[in-house]
Design a protein that fits this description.
Blueprint: H1 2-23, H2 29-39, H3 47-52, H4 60-73, H5 75-78, H6 83-90, H7 94-104
Length: about 120
């Protein structure tokens, strides 16, 4: 099951990088921005408004960093592997797969009362 989870995440992240590589081939900033707004998942808004709000003296590399910063926030979504697809790939039932994921996951409040300084340094209980 772990192999299928890693493979699914790798596939999603690789697809993200392929898309970004294609978008960032643009030579003109306006082309890059329109392509990014039109093709990258989760991007909403008006590319013309984005471009018109830029400082004309802002370096091109600084402008190019903006969509990349937004794209990095999408990495969280790339780390989600649906139970159904993992179950199908691993040959387990969805119930079994969900049970394993539940044991590996923390729920809100699970770390309440813990000393934050010890969360990553302490030995597992």
């Amino acid at each position: 099951m772990a192999e299928h989870t890693v493979a699914a995440i790798e596939a999603q992240v690789n697809e993200r990088f392929r898309l970004l590589k294609d978008i960032f081939k643009a030579r003109a900033i306006s082309e890059l921005i329109y392509d990014f707004f039109g093709r990258f998942p989760g991007v909403v808004g008006d590319p013309a408004a984005f471009l018109s709000a830029l400082d004309p003296d802002e370096p091109a590399e600084s402008v190019r960093a903006r969509p990349l910063s937004h794209a990095d926030r999408w990495l969280v979504v790339n780390s989600i592997v649906p139970v159904a697809s993992n179950a199908a790939a691993s040959g387990l039932s969805e119930t079994q797969t969900r049970a394993v994921f539940d044991r590996l996951s923390l729920r809100p409040g699970d770390l309440a009362g813990e000393n934050p300084d010890h969360l990553f340094l302490a030995k597992p209980r």
